[in-house]
Amino acid sequence: MKSDRRGFLKSGAALAGGLTFGAVAPTANQTPGNGQTPKPEKFIKAGKELVEYGERSHYVTSVRMPHPPGPGARPSPDEFGLSFHIASPLQDQTGIITPSSLHHVATTRGSFIPDIDPREHRLMIHGMVDRPLIFTMDDLMRLPSVTRIHFIECAGNRSTARARTVQETHGLSSCAEWTGVLLSTLL
Predict the structure, then answer these.
(1) Of 93, 87, 96, 101, the residue nearest 56 (C-alpha)
(2) Chain Cα centroid distance, residue 88
(3) What is the mean pLDDT of the chain?
(4) Architecture of domain 47-186
């Protein structure tokens, strides 16, 4: 008997349709403990802090790490509290935006993380300009802004013989969404 393509496709479609409909189990026969009934849902009891800002799920375990890791590496933070290279957990990231709390840090001389009070912060434009300018955050917030996505990578990203994870080889890269006033608008 000679088989033809059309007959093969028809029988394949019929078989697939039958398997699909046969795979749906009725829900009326499910009993607790038979492996088909999900466990009761767990809920988080909200407190004042959770309502005000929220918090990271306790199931999320992604953390940054000093880079490079291991013995002989410069600790971050060091004994003075300076941060050097801190790698993002790229292996746990979903999507393209790196959460700000997991963004990589890269500085060869070490730095303290600035604590900037927006009410006191000033942006000064001076030097080779016709008119020096100083902007407060309120001034900047009144100007038109743009939102852009920027990928940032440290030139120190590289694979070494001791690197075992993507965080160790490429963790000095992150992708952030930036919103602000363009310099061309300010000038």
Answers:
(1) 101
(2) 9
(3) 83
(4) Alpha-Beta Complex (3.90)
